[in-house]
Each structure stands twice: as C-alpha cells, then as structure tokens.
Amino acid sequence: MTNNKTKHLIDVPYINQSEKWPTGCESVTAVMLLHFLQFDIDVDTFIEQCLEKRAFEERAGELYGPDPAMYFAGSPYEEDSMGCYAPVIVRALEKAMQRCGQEDKKKDKNTGNRIPHRPHGDGQEEPGEESSRYEIIDETGKDISDLIDTYIDHGMPVPLWAAINMRDPIVGPKWRLFDSGEEFTWISNEHCMLLVGYDAEKYYFNDPYENNGVIGYEKKVVEDRYRWQHMQAVGVRRLQTGKNPSKSPKFNSITPALRNKNFSQ
C-alpha cells in the first residue's frame, strides 16, 4: 500500500506542447518520458518517424477517420486534430527506443565528441540493445492506485489520459471508422499527461498544456476524467540485463462497447 501522507514526486524534464504541437499532448508526454529515460529524441522526430498518423476524409458527405487506438487522428501540428489512444503510444515508444538504440553514436554536448547512447541502468549495452532494457505495456483499465503502486512508487512516470485542465468531458464529435464504417464518438477535452507523483489530496503531472509545468489536480476529479477517457495509461518496466521483453506486448483495445459508453458513473 502507498503512503499518501507525504508528497512523492519524480523529477522529469518538462516540455511545453504550446510551442508548436497544439494537439500533440500524447507525443510530448511520451518524449518527456523518453528524456527521463535518457533517450535522445526530439518531439518532431518522434511525431514524424515513430507516431502512426492518419488524416480525416469526406466520403459521400460523411466524415471518415481512423480508429484512435490504431492511429493519431489528424496531425499533432494542427489545432483541429483529435489525438490518439494508448496502443498508438505503446507502438511509438517502442519505435523510438529502437531508433535511438540503432544510432551508432551520439555527440557529447560538452566535448563535441561522439559517444554511445546510454539509457538509465548499469548495463553496458551495444548500440541497438538499449530498447531491450524496457518493456512498454498498455495499462488501459488499471486503477490509478495500481499505477502508483506499480510504477510511481518505483520511480517510473506514467503517461495517463484525462482532460485539459480537468475540464468537463464533452461527447463528440463523431466520425465513421475507415476500416469498419462503424460510427465512433470522440470524448473532447481529451488530454495526455505524465503522472509523476501524488500526495494525500492530489495527483501530480508534467502537464504539457500551455506551459502548466508540474501541476497537481484533485484525485477525485482526475479519476473521473480518467474514466471518461477509457482508463488509459502506458507503463514502462525496466528489465534485468540479459532478459528480453515479450515480442508482442498485449494491447488493451478500446472495444466498440467502450467507444460510446458513458464513463461518468
């Protein structure tokens, strides 16, 4: 059990999404986590090379778009885009770690010399092996208290879906999914942040929205907004040297029944 009487906070490098990624909260949050793990990647590279994206289309007068559990819906650079769900970020984080590991050399900022990239840990991996030190897990459906016990109390931040400034959720807009033609309902004010700590009253986040920085939100409000966004979160586990993550992490997909469910209860 966690002890909520004192404040627990993980120090994570902060990035403000308002600089150029108005709907890029998921990507900015993921890159903050990668920087915490000492992977050398910027937000633009993450978006352009790791994030799976798909634009909207009009067909016979109806709006068609991607399943946000499969693609980012739109572009993180555009204000009228939507976002994406946890499985997309799981895959993007895996790609980002593999990309960083496959780069043979990195430049030392102080000396200008080229040095091998090293994430957190005592192992001396060869280039290409860094990503094998971590397993990325779709933790959709897990209570925040369990995320605290599993990750935060062990020093690992957690990307978590809630709401912009904890605003009330808004049902809509809607579009038809490309693959199935099924009508999908988006819950607006969706926002992804990096859970970094807690105390007796609040959960604390690196919140990339409008330079919010490290900010605390009331627990009950966060838990409600989290339910509205299908209780989505992404976990990262450090693996012991010599052990490999599962080849195909299990994704908790957003089922059709969940897509239109009222999570306010």
TrEMBL record:
InterPro entries: Peptidase_C39-like. It comes from the Bacteria. Residues 100-132 are annotated as: Disordered. Residues 100-111 have a biased composition (Basic and acidic residues). Coiled coil: none annotated. Residues 10-98, 131-209 form the Peptidase C39-like domain. PANTHER family: LMO0724 PROTEIN (PTHR37806), PEPTIDASE C39-LIKE DOMAIN-CONTAINING PROTEIN (PTHR37806:SF1). This is Uncharacterized protein YvpB. It comes from Hespellia stercorisuis DSM 15480.
